[in-house]
Amino acid sequence: xxxxxxxxxxxxxxxxxxxxxxxxxxxxxxxxxxxxxxxxxxxxxxxxxxxxxxxxxxxxxxxxxxxxxxxxxxxxxxxxxxxxxxxxxxxxxxxxxxxxxxxxxxxxxxxxxxxxxxxxxxxxxxxxxxxxxxxxxxxxxxxxxxxxxxxxxxxxxxxxxxxxxxxxxxxxxxxxxxxxxxxxxxxxxxxxxxxxxxxxxxxxxxxxxxxxxxxxxxxxxxxxxxxxxxxxxxxxxxxxxxxxxxxxxxxxxxxxxxxxxxxxxxxxxxxxxxxxxxxxxxxxxxxxxxxxxxxxxxxxxxxxxxxxxxxxxxxxxxxxxxxxxxxxxxxxxxxxxxxxxxxxxxxxxxxxxxxxxxxxxxxxxxxxxxxxxxxxxxxxxxxxxxxxxxxxxxxxxxxxxxxxxxxxxxxxxxxxxxxxxxxxxxxxxxxxxxxxxxxxxxxxxxxxxxxxxxxxxxxxxxxxxxxxxxxx
Amino acid sequence: xxxxxxxxxxxxxxxxxxxxxxxxxxxxxxxxxxxxxxxxxxxxxxxxxxxxxxxxxxxxxxxxxxxxxxxxxxxxxxxxxxxxxxxxxxxxxxxxxxxxxxxxxxxxxxxxxxxxxxxxxxxxxxxxxxxxxxxxxxxxxxxxxxxxxxxxxxxxxxxxxxxxxxxxxxxxxxxxxxxxxxxxxxxxxxxxxxxxxxxxxxxxxxxxxxxxxxxxxxxxxxxxxxxxxxxxxxxxxxxxxxxxxxxxxxxxxxxxxxxxxxxxxxxxxxxxxxxxxxxxxxxxxxxxxxxxxxxxxxx
Lengths: 472, 299
Hints:
Chain A has 472 residues and is mainly alpha-helical. Chain A is 63% helix and 4% strand.
């Protein structure tokens, strides 16, 4: 066979056959929620592919030109080269529009998949030793994904993106002491300046994607080193890994998932219009559109800006302006807590042992409740980012909507935490006591209860067939 | 390898035409791949005949999805899904290896004192180089200075012009009319944009000390929101309020554009207007720095 000959030829020069054979044998645990990270990875691949195509046409310049392309309503209008090239991509480059829209949809799915993946890791305790570093890399990847999304949609120089940059500039100058300096260095002077688009372009297509790629390699390298976590049951312990071999089953599933992810992105890119910059018009600093909305992953920041009461701090003639609190402090606290969580939890529980068997969320009611409260908090902030839409859609008073959302920001997370905590305890109780009410013989439940170490002694009919010895 | 689910699955569904007598059905994955090929051909045809975003997206989705679903269905029907167990050693190296690395790096066997001095020297040199290498960041932008605190209006006695550059005279706006204006020669300047309003109405109360900033009912406020810098553009005539569409800060233009709702903390700065015959002019700069706040804005 030609293949056999080729592989031998390659192996004689690289010695890769041994490693490859081992890799093909590698065992991957199986659970639908383990695919969320894969969806993020595949969205990133689609972003690189479609983005490269867009890069062949996009012009990162604010120099003005008269639009003469085929979109009639804007013909003869003075626009920037950047905006013009984005219009050309949409109307005069064949397949350009579908590529542009696929790129935008892929970015939305990328951040969504990362967020869902992060939630899965959080609720199952997959950040515990030895995965603290990989958790921190993951949080960094999330930050970079959000940042690059913002940089990306800011490049088009349409009315919406210009408004977004204006707000970003205002948030930067709100930073105490250094704010105006940072803003001047980033924008090359006062807003809007001539430089920001070309700088964002370099960050968006080179610096950040390269960094993401490097961190992804580390992220996956550590995954290979640690081997994937697994849920309790089927004999899973902290010293083994139970699942399917990479080849052929897992590889086929993963490959299939890549194509399905790409197919969803393609369908959305073709059929669901997104970021219709020709409707928004070119950026003019004295214009703004009512009902302007950022991309979904900026919604919580936008909501924080909108719901923030009119406070600012005056310190001996110096000012800490209002946007600092929602625009800098809240994201700062958010990501500091995310980075610190594995260490905070280990310090609180005094559990510093290695863990490879996942928690079931119900067996860690405290953590699960904290996660539910956090999700509720950011969901209310996200709703706040759409307060104008809520107002017009339901015909309400804007002032009432804002006050209700401010109240919800306090009440809903607390309620979510209490309900979740209670629900976890109920589920635990069902697992333990009322064995008749549930399907018995399910190893997952009993092992999870035992793993929590909070009185989950297995009882009655539902004793797990496999008893897992734990080292800690 | 045992093929448990594969065998179970192939037994239940009715056998398809392509089912081979010796094994489970390959009909479904094969059909998927065939659909994918057909969609790829159609995609080529759409592109060649002028392109159409909807058709391209849909056909690309079918082509990609055909491969994806084909692979998954191949995997579910025909591939082994045996559950196996593999050892998972702790990621840590063998006992003592980490300490060996530290010993190796710190060179415990060498003369300690002199090496220590050299190390301090090296660290200092690298730190110095690092600081020097950071300095070029300074070239990225100018020192932030008066730009944030003054606008082109500061030149004084500049004529008020509209977005097309046309001179604005007293007959331009009806009562409650609103117009975006700039200083002559600075049309489009972000920090100079001004909302000119004809507030000839009974409930308008000029700010104390600024009674003469109103020119025959015409009042000018900075259009840059004092919260996050969006243009404040929505005038609610009945209430006499301006709303910023970005974060819904609301300003009462009848009382010096003071903030009455939303996150803004400071009023929109006012422009001192006057008349030169029938033409509107501004005698100087705004009453305060325009736009969002910053650390030393009041110094």
